[in-house]
Specification:
This protein is of the alpha+beta class. The protein is 41% helix and 22% strand.
Length: 262
């Protein structure tokens, strides 16, 4: 049965050393994206969807394309940022880490999500690290080109501020979840987040094609991997989910919402 995505418009194997990519250098060596393709991709993004054709052509003329391999760092927290990114295929994780190597995943990005805009609006340093969790294609816009563009398209700024406000609310919720929820509630919340963002309906439930390792899923939930495995096994015992090698099928989202007090 062919699945249907619920949403309209995190890696496995031995660890590899992440390659640090400086956005400015990426812009220098990457060719411009074909303009017709860039216009179509930009039109799919709510931030640019209602632009007049001439405005869309203007921004499409300055974007550049880049492909990132699985596990490659796209931007790193505290680096100076000068590029706005639009994800057009693949997936990426937004994360924070500490000196001990522990990681908290704040969000998973999917096609037509964007990031990097905060460095344009205030402190130019990046607030988080973004890493490709599978082969991913990006459109890149330099700070200079973007700031010049929004002077003639203030509606883009208003939409950007709306998106930033939504992200701030989600960040506040994430902090609350990590602080006050117990392990079962955290895992239930993480599964529900993935169901909402990339779940596919299948017979009897919703399938999550895992782009993340179990460790990354644990980092998204804010629990240890061993705790994640224990909670998932309990959810399976209750009949709420079925665990497969690269997939989790959620049979009862309502019980997960109840577990997370939603």
């Amino acid at each position: 049965m062919k699945g249907r995505r619920l949403r309209s418009g995190l890696e496995g194997g031995s660890p590899r050393r992440a390659i640090r990519v400086l956005p400015g250098k990426a812009l220098e060596r990457e060719p411009r994206a074909p303009q017709a393709e860039a216009q179509w991709l930009l039109r799919q993004v709510p931030l640019f969807a209602d632009l007049a054709d001439d405005d869309l052509k203007a921004i499409a003329a300055v974007v550049k394309g880049r492909t990132y391999r699985r596990g490659q760092v796209i931007i790193r927290a505290d680096e100076v940022g000068g590029v706005f990114f639009l994800l057009t295929s693949g997936a990426a994780k937004v994360s924070l880490g500490d000196k001990q190597g522990r990681e908290v995943i704040l969000k998973i990005l999917y096609p037509f999500d964007f990031f990097g805009e905060m460095a344009f609006l205030d402190d130019p340093r990046r607030s988080a690290t973004v890493t490709a969790v599978e082969k991913s294609r990006m459109l890149l816009i330099s700070r200079q080109d973007f700031l010049q563009f929004i002077q003639s398209s203030p509606q883009v700024v208003l939409r950007m501020l709306t998106t930033l406000s939504q992200r701030l609310r989600r960040a506040d919720q994430k902090i609350g979840d990590l602080t006050f929820l117990d392990a079962s509630e955290k895992v239930a919340m993480a599964l529900l987040e993935l169901v909402a963002e990339q779940g596919v309906t299948v017979e009897g439930g919703v399938a999550l094609e895992l782009r993340l390792t179990r460790q990354a899923l644990a980092n998204l939930a804010g629990v240890a991997r061993e705790t994640l495995e224990r909670v998932l096994a309990e959810f399976q015992r209750r009949g709420w989910v079925r665990l497969e090698k690269r997939r989790i099928v959620v049979f009862n989202p309502a019980m997960l919402r109840r577990e997370a007090y939603l």
